[in-house]
Design a protein that fits this description.
The chain has 21 helices and 30 strands. The strands form eight sheets. An eight-stranded mixed sheet has the order 12-11-8-6-7-14-15-23, with helices on both faces. Strands 5-4-17-16-18-19-20 form a seven-stranded mixed sheet, sandwiched between helices. Helix 3 packs across helix 4. The relative contact order is 0.10. It binds 5'-O-[(S)-butoxy(hydroxy)phosphoryl]adenosine. 5'-O-[(S)-butoxy(hydroxy)phosphoryl]adenosine binds next to helix 12, strand 20, strand 24 and strand 25. GO terms for molecular function: acetate-CoA ligase activity; AMP binding; ATP binding; metal ion binding.
Length: about 650
């Protein structure tokens, strides 16, 4: 166990909710009792927070477990719930999005604006031949059109697949092909680190290999010149000239809303499928409960990108279904200066801030003087997501951003869970720094040992979810068997728990003496780099696709800022020149090659050129030993190693460096 994790488990401080927040909280301790009494009735009440065109007949149909159906027979429109109903209730002039471009340009989008734009985009997509059930890929920077594009798809029943703008042409191609997307919505580019960063050339490269794509809609953002083909249409022509009248049709509660790709333990990403009624119910309820969101007075800001599930559930669907006013920021936290985030909090009087541990640790590195330079007194609640937050970062966040007073909600969930699962409730929970605490009302989680037995308090093992939940993934797009194998075969039905289906999250966890849950990171071959899921296999495949690499092994090494960092070991091909400068050059080339193949987020921090890789007798790469090397530890047990001299060779090194 790393030193940071060991510290985390010695943490004993506890912080009760501020009295005023507790007294006015949207959700009180009673919610736990209600949900424990009748879980399905509890979720049924939360579904009732939405507007349904037709009520459901059954809350949960688990007859074909683990393929769940929630709110069967119910019909609703997601965009209607996120936009129209707020306008109909007289809140058309209310700001939905305060958008801040990286260069400092701004836009204010009211709910009436959002309604008009979404209707126009829905009409434009319909005009391009998109109908319910078709897939639309979205590859956009953080501009209001990203939310509009998602809502327009939801409005007409098209299933969106948002691909993070930092992904490469290959990654985009794979995702478009896997879902056979008919339309791609993109932009000329966005602003990043003070300059335009193009997106359209990447789409052009991808679309050339994607025969399913009939049309490409292009938002003009940077104004830079772009290549143009017969499939391309400008957004400002197609959408802004379309009719603003559009009547939203209701869709079945199980209609596919979106696919979002996440890394698995093989090189092929998994298309996580989410549907309509259950997803929106839980995204909406958790926004209300965990952020204690008061739409009349709060200004909410989630700093995630729309390309990740956090952006889906806590920028688009959760906040908008609750009628929130929120901030959307295009750029990086240190452009043009390191106080940019705090400047935004100050400027818009942000009251609820939701960000990631990697950002908090970066802010720590920059020093508390930076936030101290701004008025952050509007803040009343802080959230964290994406990876385990170490107590030091939790305390720093509370102290220097939260005036030493504000509650910090550490929210555990996954692309697969669709919405928050384990988190404090800000008006109820006495939070412990570094712990996600307890399953939310209506959620059942446990920590089990290798045999699938629940561990006693004080014990550690694997995090599992023991009852279905409304926003659970329904399957992996086009691959039911991978869905069964990845999530449902490790524990539960067929294994040790009789007929019970148990969802394996892939995370290690511990229960403390009070039974509170501490997340300890992934137990599979998925790395968490700045909170982003990247599979070791994916990076290994990218490396061996380079002509100078014979074999590669990749590990996630502890990193003070990014949580984990990618460290690669590569065996050069016999013909590759690696002595002296040539080795350094090859390393630089390989790092760029991975960035080009998978996207800049997957660029290894470090690559070591090695003559061999440590393998077990059965030929499995011993990543544990490589992690020891990557983290500069003395080597652990090498007894199962096929040839122990390999490790001497690696440690003495043929090449390496950052
Ligand atoms: C993995 C899921 C949830 C949206 C962003 C990431 C890790 C997430 C926490 C947390 C400890 C966390 C887990 C999980 N994770 N939140 N609060 N504490 N670990 O979504 O890319 O699907 O990654 O992120 O390891 O399995 P994702």
């Amino acid at each position: 166990m790393s030193e940071a994790l060991a510290n985390l488990l010695n943490e004993t401080r506890q912080f009760p909710p501020p009295a005023e927040l507790a007294a006015n909280a949207n959700v009180t301790a009673a919610a736990y009792d209600e949900a424990a009494g009748d879980r399905l009735a509890f979720w049924e009440r939360q579904a009732g927070r939405l507007t349904w065109a037709q009520p459901w007949e059954q809350v949960l149909d688990w007859s074909n477990a683990p393929f769940a159906k929630w709110f069967t027979g119910g019909r609703l429109n997601v965009a209607y719930n996120c936009v129209d109903r707020h306008v109909e209730a007289g809140h058309g002039d209310k700001v939905a999005i305060h958008w801040e471009g990286e260069p400092g340009d701004t836009r204010t989008v009211t709910y009436a604006d959002l309604h008009r734009l979404t209707c126009q985009a829905a009409n434009a997509l319909t005009e391009l031949g998109v109908t319910a059930g078709d897939r639309v890929a979205i590859y956009l920077p953080m501009i209001p059109e990203a939310a509009v594009a998602m809502l327009a798809c939801a409005r007409i029943g098209a299933t969106h697949s948002v691909v993070f703008g930092g992904f490469s042409a290959d990654a985009l191609t794979n995702r478009i092909q896997d879902a056979s997307a008919k339309v791609v919505i993109t932009a000329d580019g966005g602003f990043r680190r003070g300059k335009p960063s193009a997106l359209k050339p990447t789409v052009d490269e991808a679309v050339a290999n994607c025969p399913s794509v009939e049309h490409v809609l292009v938002v003009r953002r940077t104004g830079e010149e772009v290549g143009w083909s017969a499939k391309d249409h400008w957004w400002h022509e197609a959408v802004e000239n379309a009719s603003p009248e559009h009547e939203a049709q209701p869709f079945d509660a199980e209609h596919p809303l979106f696919i979002l790709y996440t890394s698995g333990t093989t090189a092929r990403p998994k298309g996580i499928l989410h549907t309509t009624g259950g997803y929106l119910t839980q995204a909406s309820y958790t926004t209300h409960a965990v952020f204690d969101l008061k739409p009349e007075t709060d200004v909410y800001w989630c700093t995630a990108d729309i390309g990740w599930v956090t952006g889906h559930s806590y920028i688009v669907y959760g906040p908008l279904s609750n009628g929130a006013t929120q901030i959307m920021y295009e750029g990086t936290p240190d452009t043009p200066h390191k106080g940019r985030f705090w400047e935004i909090v100050d400027k818009y009087k942000v009251s609820i801030l939701y960000t990631a541990p990697t950002l908090i640790r970066t802010m720590m590195k920059w020093g508390e003087d930076v936030p101290a330079g701004y008025d952050l007194s509007s803040l009343r609640l802080l959230g964290s997501v994406g990876e385990p937050i170490n107590p030091e970062a939790w305390i720093w966040y509370r102290q220097y951003v939260g005036r030493g007073e504000l509650p910090v909600v550490d929210t555990w969930w996954q692309t697969e869970t669709g919405a928050m699962m384990i988190s404090p409730l800000p008006g109820v929970t006495e939070a412990k720094p570094g712990s996600a605490m307890a399953p939310l009302p209506g959620i059942a989680a446990d920590v089990v040992d290798d045999q699938g037995e629940s561990v006693p308090n004080g014990g550690g093992g694997y995090l599992v979810l023991t009852e279905p939940w409304p926003s659970m993934l329904r399957t992996i797009w086009g691959d039911d068997s991978r869905f069964l194998e990845t999530y449902w075969s490790r524990f539960g039905a067929g294994a040790n728990a009789g007929d019970k289906w148990v969802y394996f999250a892939g995370d290690g966890a511990k229960k403390d003496d009070d039974g509170h849950i501490w997340l300890l990171g992934r137990v599979d071959d998925v790395m968490l780099v700045s909170g982003h899921n990247i599979s070791t296999t994916e990076v290994e495949s990218a490396l061996v696709s380079h002509p100078s690499v014979a074999e590669a092994a990749v590990v996630g090494a502890t990193d003070p800022t990014t949580g984990q960092a990618i460290v690669a070991f590569a065996i050069p091909r016999g013909s590759a020149e690696i002595s002296g400068d040539a080795g350094e050059q090859l390393i630089a080339e390989l790092r760029n090659h991975v960035a080009k193949t998978l996207g800049p987020i997957a660029k290894p921090r470090q690559i070591m050129l090695v003559p061999e890789l440590p393998k077990t007798r059965s030929g499995k790469i011993m990543r544990r030993l490589l992690r020891d090397v990557a983290e500069n530890r003395s080597l652990g047990d090498v007894t199962t190693l096929q040839d122990s001299s390999v490790m001497d060779l690696i440690s003495s090194g043929m090449g390496g460096g950052r």
